[in-house]
Amino acid sequence: MFELTLLLLPVAAASGWLAARRSLGKREQSPARDLTPAYFQGLNHLLNEQPDKAIDVFIKMLEVDSDTVETHLALGNLFRRRGEVDRAIRIHQNLIARPTLNREQRAQALLELGQDYMRAGLFDRAENLFVELSETRLYEQQALTNLLEIYQQEKDWQRCLEITERLPGDALLKMQMSHFYCELAEGELKLHNLDAAERYLKKAQAVDRQGVRATILQGNMERDRGECQAAIKTYKRVEQQDANYLSEMIDGLVGCYRTLGREKELGDYLSALYHRQHSPVVMLALADILSQEEGVEATAAFVLDHLASYPDLRVLEYLVRLNQRRQEHDPRETLKVLGLALDRLLTVQPKYRCEQCGFTAKTLHWHCPSCRRWNSIKPVQGLGCQSEPTGYGYK
User: How many CB atoms are closer than 10 A to CB 345?
Assistant: First the structure.
């Protein structure tokens, strides 16, 4: 309540000043007229913790004209930022209803009201206002940006693309467009419309050559069609685009090499890749090959060497299982218990984390559900655990 009082005091002061100015002008014409009591009535409501009544009084006193439009807009904006969306909506609706607004002032009020509706989750109402604004060419870019946010939340990817065509192009927008095409491609893949999916992927790659998501999807499609040589070439591009996503292609890459019977070439490539990136998922794939070619002892030494520099729960769990094989004829209860404990730890650990807001997840989201950023969620590297909770749940 105290914060709300501080918020309304500037409005009360402005209302009192305007009332006094108008009263003074009227006194010059008619000395019998006193200062309007509405100002003191509003203050009384405010002091009696009746903010809604106080708002009504001050808004009535602040007659909409060129001197007070900005005050109305500022007050509504402050309420929206405080989470008082109903009050913000009431103020902006009251403002729009006044016939004295000029064209630009009305457009600004519509923009604010649309943002109020968005904050309240009333996307249909917000969309109508932003569409109207975009057609008037006033505050067009702000209206289109808000429409883009609405369509992303509604997962209407075609409309997202229509909006991006009307916004100034930059690297961020091109990256977003690539994701929109990828979303459409994944939708077609679920319907087994492979040709349509491939067309969308080509558009995604054309608009953003560094789009790692489109590359991974293309590699998966080539693998599923049995085009292993092409898939290998595609998967290898991931390292140059964003090495954080090596974990998303490593299984496909290994599978394609093995389908072609090129085990030695696979080992050479993984070894070179590991020395460039020191990725735990690459190390584990390489360790599997090493255990088949050189045995458990050599593999254990390799894994221990990695753990000394790059601690990781997944690698530690792999080492426990490896040691169980080494102790096959003399099993140790400690290793079994430790292995089970690590299994449980890995089960609850997030595999992905947003670099922007800290949102954690067990599956990859290309669009962060929390901060709404694209490409901000990355596979967790290193220990694969959090030292303390972030407040976000797994999804």
Answer: 14
Strand, coil or helix: what is 377? strand
pLDDT value, residue 213: 97
Q: What is the pLDDT of residue 218?
A: 97
Q: What does the alpha-carbon distance between residue 197 and residue 136 come to, in Å, rounded to a whole number?
A: 36
Find residue 374's DSSP bridge partners.
367
**CATH number, span 2-164:** 1.25.40.10
Query: Which pLDDT tens digit goes with each residue over 129-152?
Result: 999 999 988 899 999 999 999 999
Mean local confidence (pLDDT), 264-283 = 94
Question: What does pTM read for this prediction?
Answer: 0.76
Spacing of C-alpha 78 from chain mean position: 24
**13/300: higher pLDDT:** 300
Chain centroid to CA 216: 20
For residue 346, count CB atoms less than 10 angstroms from its CB and return exposed for 0-12, middle for 13-18, buried for 19 or more: middle
- DSSP letter at 209? T
Give CA separation, 349 vs 193, 361, 365, in Å: 35, 9, 16
Q: How many CB atoms lie within 10 A of CB 42?
A: 26
**Residue 127 contacts residue 152 (beta carbons within 8 Å):** no
Domain boundaries of the chain, sorted by first residue: 2-164, 349-395
Using a pLDDT cut of 90, give the percent of the chain over it: 49
Q: Which of 220-234, 251-265, 323-337 has the lowest mean pLDDT?
A: 323-337
| Angle, alpha carbons 163-168-169 (nearest 5°) | 95
